[in-house]
Design a protein that fits this description.
By secondary structure, the protein is of the alpha+beta class. Helices cover 19% and strands 26% of the residues. It has three helices and seven strands, in the order H-H-H-E-E-E-E-E-E-E. Strands 4-5-6-7 form a four-stranded antiparallel β-sheet, with no helix packed on it. It has a three-stranded antiparallel β-sheet with strand order 1-2-3, with no helix packed on it. Strand 6 and strand 7 form a beta hairpin. The longest helix has 16 residues. The radius of gyration is 39 Å and the shape is elongated. The two termini are 78 Å apart. Keywords: Signal.
């Protein structure tokens, strides 16, 4: 026979009373007041909160002391006088040519989605930001910098863009669009 040791009855009773006192301390005396306040809020009419108009301070005119001087956003007179005319130069784009559909978008917004061979010619499929897919061939224009398609291969297309600078005039730069398998 095994003997179990138990705490005396008085100790159990004292522990029970202590636990009851601790749990009684968690009851808040102002709980009925809180319930009354919440009931008042629930019964009040809903709707829009009141509009609070904020008054702005009066504006004052400020005179700019340097308005007669050269604008800091324009080149100095020495550079402006020696600058090249936008319509001159061997590389100047033909302004009389009617623009093609893909010239409305910057080149970085256009996406090469595929290439294929049609009637012995390589053709590229270009997705534009407006959701359309356009087929292009060598010689077509695309991008806002007068880009002309120079070559189409299986994985990329090469575009020759024409950009204008004040000092050098029209310059050509080569840009490639590559098929990206991760693009959706």
């Amino acid at each position: 026979m095994r003997c179990q040791r138990t705490a005396p009855y008085g100790v159990k009773k004292a522990a029970f009373i202590a636990a009851a006192l601790v749990l009684t301390g968690c009851v808040d005396a102002d709980l009925t007041q809180l319930e009354g306040t919440l009931a008042d809020i629930r019964q009040s009419p809903g709707g829009q909160p009141p509009v609070i108009a904020v008054t702005l301070p009066a504006s004052h005119d400020v005179s700019y002391l340097y308005s007669e001087g050269r604008s800091p956003f324009l080149p100095p007179d020495a550079i402006a006088q020696e600058s090249v005319n936008r319509s001159e130069g061997a590389l100047a784009p033909d302004q009389q040519r009617s623009p093609e559909p893909l010239e409305r978008f910057p080149l970085q917004d256009l996406r090469l989605v595929g290439t294929m061979r049609m009637a012995g010619r390589q053709v590229a499929l270009i997705a534009s930001p407006d959701g359309n897919v356009t087929s292009v061939k060598e010689g077509n224009y695309m991008g806002t910098d007068y880009g002309r398609i120079a070559q189409i291969s299986a994985q990329d297309i090469r575009v020759t863009e024409r950009v204008f600078t004040q000092r050098e005039g029209w310059q050509e730069r080569q840009v490639s669009l590559v098929i990206n398998e991760n693009n959706e």
